[in-house]
Design a protein that fits this description.
- The chain has 142 residues and is mainly beta.
- Helix content is 7%, strand content 47%.
- It has a single domain, classed as Nucleic acid-binding proteins (OB fold (Dihydrolipoamide Acetyltransferase, E2P)).
- The protein has 1 helix and 8 strands, in the order ββββαββββ.
- A hairpin with a 5-residue loop joins β2 and β3.
- The two termini are 27 Å apart.
- 20% of the residues are buried.
């Protein structure tokens, strides 16, 4: 069995580089994917879905070095389900409302906006592909 998720969106925060207990680099960042559509009553609706992403090894270091909040990226990866529920991670927000988040282990990323190129996207740059990392621990999420 196999699954893949593809996201095109903007970074919601600057990537955070850390190191695992064994010294492996790991970077966490969020990506917002937007969708605009017309509802049944004719009004425009903007919908945003947030993904929390984790990248490992050289890919983690490169993401941390070249990406920052607001930049456009293409991400391919696999969903990392909650170990208890098998679905998205669920928690209570500051206002007490139930919240859910999708967590993605990054396998491939393409930078669609280069740092310092102004307010709009630039030409895509080469993509960075992760080597499948079967021993990457899933418990080092945010």
């Amino acid at each position: 069995m196999y699954h893949k998720v593809t996201i095109i969106g903007r970074l919601g925060n600057d990537p955070e580089l850390r190191y695992s207990p064994t010294g492996r680099p790991v970077t966490h960042f969020s990506v917002a994917a937007n969708r605009r559509y017309t509802s049944a009553d004719g009004s425009m609706v903007d919908e945003t879905v947030w993904f929390r992403c984790t990248a490992w090894n050289k890919q983690a270091e490169t993401i941390n070095q070249y990406l920052s909040k607001g930049q456009l990226v293409y991400v391919e990866g696999r969903l990392s389900p909650d170990k208890e529920t098998g679905g998205p991670r669920v928690w209570s927000g500051q206002n007490g409302q139930a919240r859910a988040g999708y967590e993605v282990v990054v396998e491939r990323i393409k930078f669609l906006w280069i740092r310092g190129e102004g307010a709009g996207p630039s030409a895509p740059v080469d993509d960075i592909e992760a080597f499948p990392d079967a021993d990457a621990p899933d418990d080092l999420m945010y």
